[in-house]
Protein backbone atom coordinates (compact mmCIF):
# COMPACT_ATOMS: atom_id res chain seq x y z
CA UNK A 1 0.00 0.00 0.00
CA UNK A 2 2.83 2.37 0.95
CA UNK A 3 4.51 1.53 -2.39
CA UNK A 4 1.34 2.41 -4.27
CA UNK A 5 1.04 5.75 -2.45
CA UNK A 6 4.66 6.56 -3.24
CA UNK A 7 4.20 5.66 -6.91
CA UNK A 8 1.09 7.82 -7.19
CA UNK A 9 2.88 10.71 -5.50
CA UNK A 10 5.86 10.49 -7.84
CA UNK A 11 3.54 10.28 -10.85
CA UNK A 12 1.61 13.33 -9.63
CA UNK A 13 4.77 15.38 -9.12
CA UNK A 14 6.00 14.31 -12.55
CA UNK A 15 2.79 15.48 -14.19
CA UNK A 16 3.09 18.87 -12.51
CA UNK A 17 6.75 19.19 -13.56
CA UNK A 18 6.03 18.22 -17.17
CA UNK A 19 3.10 20.59 -17.41
CA UNK A 20 5.38 23.42 -16.29
CA UNK A 21 7.97 22.51 -18.92
CA UNK A 22 5.57 22.35 -21.86
CA UNK A 23 4.98 25.72 -23.59
CA UNK A 24 1.44 26.93 -23.10
CA UNK A 25 -0.70 27.03 -26.21
CA UNK A 26 -1.50 30.63 -27.04
CA UNK A 27 -4.90 31.49 -28.45
CA UNK A 28 -4.79 32.67 -32.04
CA UNK A 29 -4.79 36.48 -32.23
CA UNK A 30 -8.21 37.91 -32.97
CA UNK A 31 -8.67 40.05 -36.07
CA UNK A 32 -10.37 43.40 -35.43
CA UNK A 33 -11.90 45.57 -38.15
CA UNK A 34 -11.13 49.28 -37.75
CA UNK A 35 -12.78 50.70 -40.88
CA UNK A 36 -16.46 51.34 -41.59
CA UNK A 37 -18.20 48.15 -42.79
CA UNK A 38 -20.34 49.93 -45.37
CA UNK A 39 -17.68 52.01 -47.13
CA UNK A 40 -14.60 50.92 -49.05
CA UNK A 41 -11.34 51.16 -47.11
CA UNK A 42 -7.73 50.12 -47.73
CA UNK A 43 -4.07 51.09 -47.36
CA UNK A 44 -3.31 50.64 -43.64
CA UNK A 45 -0.15 52.18 -42.24
CA UNK A 46 1.20 51.86 -38.67
CA UNK A 47 3.29 54.32 -36.68
CA UNK A 48 3.55 55.87 -33.20
CA UNK A 49 2.61 59.31 -31.94
CA UNK A 50 4.89 61.62 -29.96
CA UNK A 51 3.94 59.78 -26.74
CA UNK A 52 4.85 56.39 -28.16
CA UNK A 53 1.25 55.25 -28.60
CA UNK A 54 0.34 53.09 -31.62
CA UNK A 55 -1.37 54.90 -34.49
CA UNK A 56 -3.14 53.22 -37.40
CA UNK A 57 -4.04 55.26 -40.47
CA UNK A 58 -5.85 54.20 -43.63
CA UNK A 59 -7.83 55.56 -46.60
CA UNK A 60 -11.62 55.37 -46.41
CA UNK A 61 -14.43 56.30 -48.79
CA UNK A 62 -16.81 58.94 -47.53
CA UNK A 63 -19.64 57.88 -49.84
CA UNK A 64 -20.47 55.34 -52.52
CA UNK A 65 -19.23 57.73 -55.23
CA UNK A 66 -15.63 57.02 -54.30
CA UNK A 67 -14.62 60.21 -52.52
CA UNK A 68 -11.81 59.26 -50.15
CA UNK A 69 -10.14 60.80 -47.10
CA UNK A 70 -7.28 59.76 -44.87
CA UNK A 71 -8.35 58.50 -41.45
CA UNK A 72 -6.32 57.68 -38.36
CA UNK A 73 -6.92 56.34 -34.85
CA UNK A 74 -4.76 56.22 -31.71
CA UNK A 75 -4.51 53.33 -29.25
CA UNK A 76 -4.33 54.09 -25.52
CA UNK A 77 -3.81 50.46 -24.46
CA UNK A 78 -0.83 49.25 -26.45
CA UNK A 79 -2.76 48.24 -29.55
CA UNK A 80 -5.55 46.19 -27.98
CA UNK A 81 -8.11 48.76 -29.08
CA UNK A 82 -8.11 52.02 -31.05
CA UNK A 83 -10.11 55.17 -30.44
CA UNK A 84 -12.64 56.69 -32.79
CA UNK A 85 -11.18 57.52 -36.22
CA UNK A 86 -10.32 61.09 -37.11
CA UNK A 87 -10.68 62.15 -40.74
CA UNK A 88 -8.30 64.65 -42.34
CA UNK A 89 -10.44 66.93 -44.48
CA UNK A 90 -7.47 68.43 -46.34
CA UNK A 91 -6.65 65.02 -47.89
CA UNK A 92 -9.65 65.28 -50.21
CA UNK A 93 -8.77 63.62 -53.50
CA UNK A 94 -6.37 61.08 -51.98
CA UNK A 95 -5.85 58.14 -54.33
CA UNK A 96 -5.93 54.80 -52.49
CA UNK A 97 -2.93 52.75 -53.60
CA UNK A 98 -1.71 49.78 -51.56
CA UNK A 99 1.94 50.19 -52.60
CA UNK A 100 1.95 54.00 -52.57
CA UNK A 101 0.66 54.23 -49.01
CA UNK A 102 -0.73 57.35 -47.42
CA UNK A 103 1.21 57.99 -44.20
CA UNK A 104 1.11 60.01 -41.02
CA UNK A 105 4.02 61.15 -38.85
CA UNK A 106 4.12 62.72 -35.37
CA UNK A 107 6.94 65.06 -34.47
CA UNK A 108 8.37 65.22 -30.95
CA UNK A 109 6.47 68.45 -30.21
CA UNK A 110 3.13 66.89 -31.22
CA UNK A 111 2.92 68.44 -34.70
CA UNK A 112 1.52 66.01 -37.29
CA UNK A 113 2.28 65.59 -40.99
CA UNK A 114 -0.04 63.58 -43.25
CA UNK A 115 1.32 62.68 -46.71
CA UNK A 116 -0.70 61.22 -49.55
CA UNK A 117 -0.91 60.70 -53.31
CA UNK A 118 -3.36 62.21 -55.78
CA UNK A 119 -3.90 61.51 -59.47
CA UNK A 120 -2.31 63.85 -62.01
CA UNK A 121 -3.12 62.59 -65.53
CA UNK A 122 -1.39 64.65 -68.21
CA UNK A 123 -0.45 64.38 -71.91
CA UNK A 124 2.94 62.86 -71.06
CA UNK A 125 1.61 60.25 -68.63
CA UNK A 126 -2.04 59.47 -68.16
CA UNK A 127 -1.25 57.51 -64.97
CA UNK A 128 0.90 60.17 -63.31
CA UNK A 129 0.38 61.27 -59.73
CA UNK A 130 1.52 63.90 -57.24
CA UNK A 131 2.57 63.70 -53.59
CA UNK A 132 0.97 66.19 -51.24
CA UNK A 133 1.18 66.85 -47.52
CA UNK A 134 -0.78 68.68 -44.88
CA UNK A 135 0.23 69.66 -41.33
CA UNK A 136 -1.54 70.03 -38.01
CA UNK A 137 -0.13 72.14 -35.18
CA UNK A 138 -2.96 71.56 -32.69
CA UNK A 139 -3.15 67.81 -32.28
CA UNK A 140 -5.23 67.13 -35.37
CA UNK A 141 -8.01 69.64 -34.74
CA UNK A 142 -7.16 71.74 -37.79
CA UNK A 143 -4.93 71.12 -40.82
CA UNK A 144 -3.08 73.35 -43.27
CA UNK A 145 -4.03 73.40 -46.94
CA UNK A 146 -2.46 70.49 -48.82
CA UNK A 147 0.81 71.36 -50.55
CA UNK A 148 2.71 69.56 -53.30
CA UNK A 149 5.94 67.94 -52.08
CA UNK A 150 8.08 69.34 -54.91
CA UNK A 151 9.27 72.91 -54.43
CA UNK A 152 9.41 73.32 -58.22
CA UNK A 153 5.80 72.17 -58.57
CA UNK A 154 5.42 73.27 -62.19
CA UNK A 155 8.35 71.14 -63.36
CA UNK A 156 7.32 67.95 -61.58
CA UNK A 157 4.41 66.18 -63.29
CA UNK A 158 4.79 62.75 -61.69
CA UNK A 159 5.63 62.12 -58.02
CA UNK A 160 4.91 58.93 -56.09
CA UNK A 161 6.12 56.09 -53.84
CA UNK A 162 7.33 58.26 -50.98
CA UNK A 163 8.45 57.61 -47.43
CA UNK A 164 9.18 59.91 -44.52
CA UNK A 165 10.83 59.53 -41.13
CA UNK A 166 11.85 61.59 -38.12
CA UNK A 167 15.50 62.68 -38.11
CA UNK A 168 17.68 62.79 -34.97
CA UNK A 169 17.68 66.61 -35.17
CA UNK A 170 13.88 66.71 -34.86
CA UNK A 171 13.17 67.52 -38.49
CA UNK A 172 11.38 65.19 -40.92
CA UNK A 173 13.04 63.62 -43.97
CA UNK A 174 11.20 62.51 -47.10
CA UNK A 175 12.14 60.68 -50.29
CA UNK A 176 10.00 60.16 -53.37
CA UNK A 177 10.16 59.10 -57.01
CA UNK A 178 10.02 62.05 -59.40
CA UNK A 179 9.67 62.45 -63.18
CA UNK A 180 12.34 65.17 -63.31
CA UNK A 181 15.60 63.70 -64.59
CA UNK A 182 18.68 64.56 -66.58
CA UNK A 183 18.73 61.43 -68.72
CA UNK A 184 16.37 60.02 -71.36
CA UNK A 185 16.90 56.55 -69.88
CA UNK A 186 13.94 54.78 -68.36
CA UNK A 187 13.23 55.27 -64.69
CA UNK A 188 12.52 57.92 -62.08
CA UNK A 189 14.81 60.12 -60.01
CA UNK A 190 15.00 59.70 -56.23
CA UNK A 191 14.44 63.06 -54.56
CA UNK A 192 15.18 64.00 -50.96
CA UNK A 193 13.99 66.91 -48.82
CA UNK A 194 13.57 67.74 -45.14
CA UNK A 195 11.42 70.08 -43.11
CA UNK A 196 12.47 73.48 -41.91
CA UNK A 197 10.47 73.89 -38.74
CA UNK A 198 6.79 74.36 -39.55
CA UNK A 199 7.57 75.82 -43.00
CA UNK A 200 7.29 72.41 -44.65
CA UNK A 201 9.78 70.54 -46.83
CA UNK A 202 12.69 72.51 -48.27
CA UNK A 203 16.01 72.11 -50.11
CA UNK A 204 14.97 69.24 -52.39
CA UNK A 205 17.74 67.43 -54.23
CA UNK A 206 18.35 64.32 -56.31
CA UNK A 207 20.17 61.55 -54.45
CA UNK A 208 19.99 58.84 -57.14
CA UNK A 209 18.71 58.33 -60.67
CA UNK A 210 17.12 55.53 -62.67
CA UNK A 211 14.80 53.94 -60.14
CA UNK A 212 12.02 51.49 -60.87
CA UNK A 213 8.99 53.75 -61.30
CA UNK A 214 6.33 51.86 -59.33
CA UNK A 215 7.93 50.30 -56.25
CA UNK A 216 7.73 51.83 -52.79
CA UNK A 217 10.78 53.37 -51.13
CA UNK A 218 11.87 53.11 -47.49
CA UNK A 219 13.61 55.50 -45.08
CA UNK A 220 15.04 54.22 -41.80
CA UNK A 221 17.08 55.80 -38.99
CA UNK A 222 19.27 53.39 -37.00
CA UNK A 223 20.32 53.64 -33.34
CA UNK A 224 23.47 55.60 -34.22
CA UNK A 225 21.51 58.23 -36.15
CA UNK A 226 22.43 57.12 -39.66
CA UNK A 227 19.69 57.68 -42.22
CA UNK A 228 19.18 54.79 -44.66
CA UNK A 229 17.26 54.71 -47.94
CA UNK A 230 16.34 51.50 -49.77
CA UNK A 231 14.58 51.18 -53.12
CA UNK A 232 14.46 49.23 -56.37
CA UNK A 233 16.96 50.60 -58.86
CA UNK A 234 17.41 50.04 -62.59
CA UNK A 235 20.89 48.73 -63.40
CA UNK A 236 22.29 48.65 -66.94
CA UNK A 237 18.90 49.57 -68.33
CA UNK A 238 17.14 46.27 -67.63
CA UNK A 239 18.03 44.82 -64.20
CA UNK A 240 15.71 45.86 -61.35
CA UNK A 241 17.41 45.01 -58.06
CA UNK A 242 17.35 46.49 -54.57
CA UNK A 243 19.67 49.36 -53.67
CA UNK A 244 20.82 50.94 -50.40
CA UNK A 245 22.44 54.25 -49.53
CA UNK A 246 23.13 55.97 -46.21
CA UNK A 247 23.57 59.48 -44.81
CA UNK A 248 25.57 60.10 -41.60
CA UNK A 249 24.59 63.78 -41.35
CA UNK A 250 20.79 64.11 -41.47
CA UNK A 251 20.63 64.03 -45.25
CA UNK A 252 23.32 66.59 -46.04
CA UNK A 253 25.33 63.94 -47.87
CA UNK A 254 24.72 60.36 -49.01
CA UNK A 255 26.97 57.43 -49.79
CA UNK A 256 27.24 55.87 -53.21
CA UNK A 257 24.39 53.37 -53.79
CA UNK A 258 25.13 49.70 -53.09
CA UNK A 259 23.22 46.72 -54.44
CA UNK A 260 21.71 44.69 -51.60
CA UNK A 261 21.65 41.46 -53.60
CA UNK A 262 22.78 40.62 -57.14
CA UNK A 263 19.46 39.05 -58.16
CA UNK A 264 19.93 40.25 -61.75
CA UNK A 265 16.21 40.41 -62.35
CA UNK A 266 15.88 41.65 -65.93
CA UNK A 267 12.29 42.74 -66.52
CA UNK A 268 10.64 45.31 -68.75
CA UNK A 269 8.02 46.32 -66.23
CA UNK A 270 7.45 47.12 -62.58
CA UNK A 271 6.48 44.56 -59.92
CA UNK A 272 4.84 47.07 -57.54
CA UNK A 273 6.67 45.56 -54.55
CA UNK A 274 9.37 47.56 -52.80
CA UNK A 275 11.86 46.72 -50.02
CA UNK A 276 11.79 47.15 -46.25
CA UNK A 277 14.49 47.26 -43.58
CA UNK A 278 15.13 47.34 -39.85
CA UNK A 279 18.10 47.03 -37.48
CA UNK A 280 19.28 45.11 -34.42
CA UNK A 281 22.32 45.97 -32.29
CA UNK A 282 24.95 44.91 -34.82
CA UNK A 283 23.06 44.26 -38.05
CA UNK A 284 20.92 45.89 -40.69
CA UNK A 285 18.19 43.60 -42.04
CA UNK A 286 16.46 43.76 -45.43
CA UNK A 287 13.49 42.02 -47.09
CA UNK A 288 12.25 42.29 -50.68
CA UNK A 289 10.53 40.51 -53.56
CA UNK A 290 12.24 39.38 -56.75
CA UNK A 291 12.01 36.93 -59.61
CA UNK A 292 15.74 37.04 -60.32
CA UNK A 293 17.33 33.63 -59.75
CA UNK A 294 14.16 32.41 -58.05
CA UNK A 295 10.78 33.87 -57.21
CA UNK A 296 9.48 34.98 -53.84
CA UNK A 297 10.33 37.08 -50.79
CA UNK A 298 13.98 37.14 -49.69
CA UNK A 299 15.99 38.31 -46.67
CA UNK A 300 19.59 39.34 -46.05
CA UNK A 301 21.53 41.21 -43.38
CA UNK A 302 24.47 43.58 -43.26
CA UNK A 303 26.66 43.18 -40.17
CA UNK A 304 28.31 46.32 -38.86
CA UNK A 305 31.01 47.55 -41.28
CA UNK A 306 30.69 44.41 -43.41
CA UNK A 307 29.08 43.53 -46.73
CA UNK A 308 25.62 42.15 -47.35
CA UNK A 309 25.07 38.48 -46.54
CA UNK A 310 23.86 36.00 -49.14
CA UNK A 311 20.13 36.23 -49.56
CA UNK A 312 17.85 33.63 -47.96
CA UNK A 313 14.32 32.66 -48.94
CA UNK A 314 11.49 33.83 -46.68
CA UNK A 315 8.66 32.44 -48.80
CA UNK A 316 9.23 30.55 -52.04
CA UNK A 317 5.59 30.86 -53.04
CA UNK A 318 6.05 32.58 -56.43
CA UNK A 319 3.29 35.06 -55.69
CA UNK A 320 4.74 36.10 -52.28
CA UNK A 321 5.16 39.90 -52.31
CA UNK A 322 4.96 43.11 -50.29
CA UNK A 323 7.21 42.19 -47.33
CA UNK A 324 7.56 44.35 -44.23
CA UNK A 325 9.89 43.87 -41.26
CA UNK A 326 10.35 45.14 -37.70
CA UNK A 327 12.53 44.44 -34.67
CA UNK A 328 11.17 43.29 -31.29
CA UNK A 329 12.71 41.83 -28.13
CA UNK A 330 15.79 43.89 -29.07
CA UNK A 331 17.35 41.15 -31.19
CA UNK A 332 14.46 39.38 -32.94
CA UNK A 333 12.82 40.07 -36.30
CA UNK A 334 9.23 39.78 -37.46
CA UNK A 335 8.61 39.60 -41.22
CA UNK A 336 5.17 39.74 -42.86
CA UNK A 337 4.11 39.44 -46.50
CA UNK A 338 1.15 38.36 -48.64
CA UNK A 339 0.92 35.37 -50.99
CA UNK A 340 -1.75 33.72 -53.09
CA UNK A 341 -3.55 30.58 -52.01
CA UNK A 342 -5.57 28.44 -54.42
CA UNK A 343 -9.24 27.94 -53.57
CA UNK A 344 -11.76 25.71 -55.40
CA UNK A 345 -13.18 28.54 -57.50
CA UNK A 346 -10.72 31.42 -57.14
CA UNK A 347 -7.39 32.68 -55.83
CA UNK A 348 -7.27 34.29 -52.40
CA UNK A 349 -4.40 35.89 -50.52
CA UNK A 350 -3.10 35.20 -47.02
CA UNK A 351 -0.66 36.98 -44.71
CA UNK A 352 2.53 35.14 -43.73
CA UNK A 353 4.58 35.75 -40.57
CA UNK A 354 8.17 34.64 -40.00
CA UNK A 355 10.23 35.15 -36.83
CA UNK A 356 14.05 35.25 -37.01
CA UNK A 357 16.75 35.94 -34.46
CA UNK A 358 19.24 38.79 -34.69
CA UNK A 359 21.58 36.69 -36.84
CA UNK A 360 18.82 35.88 -39.30
CA UNK A 361 18.13 32.31 -38.19
CA UNK A 362 14.51 31.22 -38.62
CA UNK A 363 12.61 30.57 -35.38
CA UNK A 364 9.02 30.23 -36.54
CA UNK A 365 6.78 30.32 -39.63
CA UNK A 366 3.01 30.75 -39.60
CA UNK A 367 0.09 32.39 -41.39
CA UNK A 368 -2.04 35.09 -39.79
CA UNK A 369 -5.14 34.93 -41.99
CA UNK A 370 -7.26 32.01 -43.22
CA UNK A 371 -7.22 30.89 -46.84
CA UNK A 372 -10.94 31.66 -47.05
CA UNK A 373 -10.38 35.44 -47.32
CA UNK A 374 -8.20 37.63 -49.53
CA UNK A 375 -5.83 39.58 -47.25
CA UNK A 376 -3.10 41.74 -48.80
CA UNK A 377 -0.41 44.38 -48.15
CA UNK A 378 0.34 43.84 -44.46
CA UNK A 379 2.13 46.46 -42.34
CA UNK A 380 3.79 45.84 -39.00
CA UNK A 381 4.71 47.76 -35.82
CA UNK A 382 6.34 46.79 -32.53
CA UNK A 383 4.14 47.97 -29.66
CA UNK A 384 5.95 46.26 -26.75
CA UNK A 385 9.12 44.24 -26.34
CA UNK A 386 7.23 41.03 -27.13
CA UNK A 387 4.18 42.33 -29.00
CA UNK A 388 3.53 43.52 -32.54
CA UNK A 389 0.52 44.77 -34.49
CA UNK A 390 -0.09 43.60 -38.05
CA UNK A 391 -2.67 45.45 -40.16
CA UNK A 392 -3.86 44.50 -43.64
CA UNK A 393 -6.61 44.98 -46.20
CA UNK A 394 -9.28 42.30 -46.64
CA UNK A 395 -10.36 42.40 -50.29
CA UNK A 396 -12.79 39.47 -50.11
CA UNK A 397 -15.73 41.75 -50.89
CA UNK A 398 -15.93 44.84 -53.18
CA UNK A 399 -16.07 47.05 -50.08
CA UNK A 400 -12.56 46.14 -48.91
CA UNK A 401 -11.88 46.63 -45.20
CA UNK A 402 -8.90 47.33 -42.94
CA UNK A 403 -8.22 44.87 -40.11
CA UNK A 404 -5.51 44.49 -37.48
CA UNK A 405 -4.20 41.84 -35.09
CA UNK A 406 -2.27 42.31 -31.84
CA UNK A 407 0.20 39.45 -31.60
CA UNK A 408 2.15 38.46 -28.49
CA UNK A 409 5.34 36.64 -29.39
TrEMBL record:
InterPro entries: Sialidase, Sialidase_sf. This is Sialidase domain-containing protein. The lineage of its organism: Bacteria, Pseudomonadati, Bacteroidota, Cytophagia, Cytophagales. Residues 70-264 form the Sialidase domain. CDD domains: Sialidase_non-viral. It holds the Pfam family BNR_2. It comes from the Bacteria. Gene3D superfamilies: 2.120.10.10.
Amino acid sequence: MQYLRTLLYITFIGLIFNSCQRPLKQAAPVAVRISSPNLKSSCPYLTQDHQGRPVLCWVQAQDTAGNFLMAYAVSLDGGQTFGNPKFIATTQGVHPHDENLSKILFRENGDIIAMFAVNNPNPENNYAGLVKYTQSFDGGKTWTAAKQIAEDAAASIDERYFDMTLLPNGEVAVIWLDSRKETPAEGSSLYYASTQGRAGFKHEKVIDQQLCQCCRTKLFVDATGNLHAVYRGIINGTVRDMMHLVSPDNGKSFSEPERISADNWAIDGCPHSGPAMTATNNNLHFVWYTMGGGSGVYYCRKPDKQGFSQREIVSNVPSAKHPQICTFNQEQLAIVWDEQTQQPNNLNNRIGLQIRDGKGQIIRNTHLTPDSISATHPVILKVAESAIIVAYTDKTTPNSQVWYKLITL
